[in-house]
Design brief:
By secondary structure, this protein is of the alpha/beta class. The chain is built from 10 helices and 10 strands. Helix 2 packs across helix 5, helix 4 crosses helix 9 and helix 8 packs across helix 9. Pfam families: NTP_transferase.
Length: about 290
């Protein structure tokens, strides 16, 4: 089992920064939402960020080496998790930082595949090892993170049961859905499914599976596809689902969709902040790093 986890935290957070009128947020929370990376927004007691809870679950799942991909203005991460570029000790986790630089001529970062490519360029040892990768603004369970460590498949992702996600139906309808074969190997990912598509994409359990960007990768196998990832013409970004699909075209049956049925708290927009706070209050009454 591998013990490397790469956390993507260098995005622009543009949806979080949109102006909305909400009466359930403090001025401080609104300011943080406008200024901080999403994973650093203080949703826990004493203003601790969501990323604390993801790191706690990662530690419980057995991860030891954490690389957090931050933006060029990401110095605040170091105030929370260690002021060195590499090998900070945070509650027994070894935390290092990679920087996602914005290419010349662009205003925003170049997407999740570019983030991971820049990270493995800065930590080339990842290209000879297996590692997991996930978002910083989702709270994946210990069980899901452990499943990524335990799978024997070279590449994998957590295939969440769409019906178990506790989001508004309009939001869920925008999620990409995965097509799996009878052995749960990935065949395709459909970005914007229509109602007609849904029946064709159900898995062997009759479930629709969505990815919430929780992956396991074989570093050596993935690298050339990461390096040569094409730009999504609609969003003008390089994206990890594209990398995974290109990998399995040449290497069939090497990406497993691991079925999971649970909610994944998500900090995408200001509207999510109060809900995530309530979730943490209910399920994480305290952050216990020793258990």
């Amino acid at each position: 089992m591998h013990d490397n986890l790469i956390i993507l935290a260098g995005g622009a957070s543009s949806r979080m920064k949109k102006e909305v009128v909400l009466n359930n947020l403090t001025e401080e929370e609104i300011a943080q939402a406008n200024e901080r990376s999403k994973g650093l927004i203080g949703v826990g007691p004493n203003g601790r960020p969501l990323l604390d809870y993801l790191l706690l679950n990662a530690k419980k799942a057995g991860y030891k080496n954490i690389i957090i991909i931050i933006g060029e203005q990401g110095e605040l991460f170091k105030e929370f998790y260690g002021n060195q570029d590499k090998n900070n000790d945070f509650h027994g986790l070894n935390i290092s930082f990679a920087v996602q630089y914005i290419p010349e001529g662009r205003v925003k970062p170049f997407g999740t595949a570019d983030a991971l490519f820049q990270a493995v360029a800065q930590y080339p040892e990842m290209n000879t090892q297996s590692y997991s990768a996930c978002n910083s603004d989702n709270l994946y369970s210990t069980a899901a993170l452990l499943a990524l460590r335990e799978t024997n498949s070279p590449n994998a992702f957590i295939g969440y049961d769409r019906d178990a996600l506790d989001f508004p139906s309009e939001r869920i309808s925008r999620f990409a859905i995965a097509k799996l074969d009878e052995n749960n190997h990935l065949l395709d990912i459909l970005e914007k499914p229509t109602a007609d598509d849904l029946e064709k994409y159900k898995d062997s359990e009759g479930k629709l599976r969505v990815s919430m960007n929780a992956f396991k990768f074989d570093g050596a196998m993935l690298y050339p596809y990461l390096k040569n990832c094409p730009v999504n013409p609609e969003r003008d970004e390089k994206e990890l689902p594209t990398v995974l699909l290109n990998t399995i075209k040449d290497n069939p049956n090497t990406a497993l969709g691991i079925p999971f049925s649970e909610h994944v708290p998500d900090l995408t927009a200001k509207e999510d902040i109060a809900e995530v706070k309530e979730y943490l209050k209910k399920y994480y009454p305290e952050l216990n790093w020793e258990s």
